[in-house]
Records
---
Amino acid sequence: MIPTPNLSHLTAKDFERVYEPAEDTFLLLDALENDAEDLKSSRPLICLEIGSGSGCVSAFIGTILGPSSALYLCTDINTHACQCTVATGRQNKVCLESVGTYLDRSLHTRLKHRVDLLIFNPPYVPTDSVEAESAQSSPAIASAWAGGINGMELTNTFLKLAPELLAPQGRFYLVAVKENNIPRILAAMLNEHDLAGKVVLQRRAGREHLHILRFEKQGSQVQT
Ligand SMILES: C[S@@+](CC[C@H](N)C(=O)[O-])C[C@H]1O[C@@H](n2cnc3c(N)ncnc32)[C@H](O)[C@@H]1O
């Protein structure tokens, strides 16, 4: 079993401003752990996590792949989350390079077709658009969960960017809930972007039915 990253350096005060790892985070870690051997053998060189929050997920990936085996890039719109991400990398002996930006802005052009492992646990909770827009415009804890209509407003924006980021053999893990309409996400990614996706893990947690989706380019080897 791969140990969950040590977050003992983060305090309750940090988690008033930054998303504290929860069931969605842990389901994502479980999916990555299930794929650990496959991920290692594919030797990713560039990993990019959008919305890294505490840095827990990228530190976990660093533990799977090895602290200096890849470039671990993380973004978050919340600058305090960026600081927590860097601190979590340090605490777990993985160098996490954090960029405070909207999604992959400022990195997109340089990273086109170069990302081997792409991860996004987005704000997926359905809210009205005004709430999601206000969370995005003054990033604090609400930006971690307020997802707008169907919980998909930010995710839809990123789903248009993700295919262009992925290297030919790259993979993309996305967290979603039932309300996000998972069949529609899978169909759109296949039909509009030629990315084949599947649900690799799902779990009920309170009122949420969490899913981990994994996408790969059509024609690349799809693990069953
Ligand atoms: C559900 S939390 C996930 C945090 C962490 N990855 C985890 O799994 O525990 C969503 C994260 O996305 C960040 N976020 C929200 N909007 C963003 C945006 N437009 N660009 C980058 N990050 C964003 C939030 O600040 C938050 O850290």
---
Amino acid sequence: MIENEQPALAASLWTTKAAPGPEAPALSGEVEADLCIVGGGFAGLSTALHAAEAGLDVVLIEAESLGWGASGRNGGQVLPGLKENPREVEARFGPQGTRMIECAGAAPDLVFDLIERHGISCGAMRAGWISAAMSDGLTAARDRGAQWRALGADVRDLSGPETREMLGGGYYAGALWDRRGGGVQPLSYARGLAGAAASAGVRLYSHTPARRVGHEGQWRIETPSGRVSAQRVALCTNGYSGPLLPELQRNVVPVVSIQIATDRLPRDLTPDILPQRQVVSDTRRQLLYFRRDAEGRFVIGGAGAYGGVGLSRAFRRLEAEALQLFPQLGGLAWQYGWGGRVAVTTDHLPHLAEPAPGLFTAGGFNGRGLAMATMMGRILGRRLAGDAEAEADWPLEPLRPIPLHRFHRLGVRTVIATAGLRDRLRIP
Ligand SMILES: Cc1cc2nc3c(=O)[nH]c(=O)nc-3n(C[C@H](O)[C@H](O)[C@H](O)COP(=O)(O)OP(=O)(O)OC[C@H]3O[C@@H](n4cnc5c(N)ncnc54)[C@H](O)[C@@H]3O)c2cc1C
């Protein structure tokens, strides 16, 4: 079992309704491959698929079931770009930054192409992403929109009344409508990627935690009832990383995010919520994100807590937030509640690393991993297969452990409390 996991958070709307995935038995005995991937979320599955398509013999092992981590639990929002604006990424990385921004901007295209190419049934909708701002966040949002438009992206400014009309409610002062975004049923998408990987020849194993990774002539990954020997290894364990590689575990802070969902909304709800089915997140520090799924349920997420009383309080707070946004939801039951770990990095960027020759890691998607982890998987999978173009897409950086990482829960609680207070007091 994954360290410190709260099992109750794993049962979600998505687990109840997801399409089945491919067969993935537990590994028993010894197997060999060119590449062993540890972790069966979007990053691991996309790496596996793209490496296999590029000709590598690939084995993927997952500690629980495929898509069990953040990938099967998220909001299903397919978002372009990174947490940081194009200008900041380019200022830090120069021409390499331009390439990173191109990859991040194109990530939703990759997701929807994969869905189409592999016939993945996952309630995909592409009506765009609304990034909604309160009055104190509007100038920054407009500036971000202008930066993306300068790069050719279809991003439109929405006034306050336009935003409220498209949402069917809310209290935002304005928004960006980024037409590249969309929504999917995330667990069905993860299982669909797994199916595509299996068809490309990847051998998938679930209920197979990697217990030790070592190098003896080649990489050897020990599991409870077997072992994988491979030339290269990719650790795609992200916010669920344990002590397998301590510097990877300490490179990200796992922050709990939770969601609640109704059943299908009644047809006569007035005003209707998100009639065109855009996905929405706001730009506050303690942000809310919400959408309707393909069957018309309303799903909303926000800051969680690490367990017990804090978690029940966080669920109640989220219900209250939902009603403040959309009073027309009053009286409807919240049928589902769940959560998972968002892997946050100190520079708000995903990290690709090679801490030892042939041992790669990818993670830290900062709540933007549906599209970006899929894209990073393509970059990593092709890179591992020797594609020089992919090598130039994203820089390798050393894994830098975050100081005082073991106190991260206390730090996160303080940051969440301060962020909420600053949002309420409108302190920039
Ligand atoms: C509640 C929530 C809402 C979110 N909403 C959105 C959203 O709407 N849009 C968006 O873009 N992003 C969202 N995110 C973020 C997104 O889900 C992640 O960025 C993305 O899923 C990361 O994928 P991953 O493959 O890197 O990691 P994960 O999906 O977390 O996969 C890691 C896997 O590694 C496995 N593992 C760990 N240790 C081992 C081991 N030793 N051996 C074998 N396997 C191991 C775990 O079991 C896990 O399945 C959200 C995240 C959460 C938690």
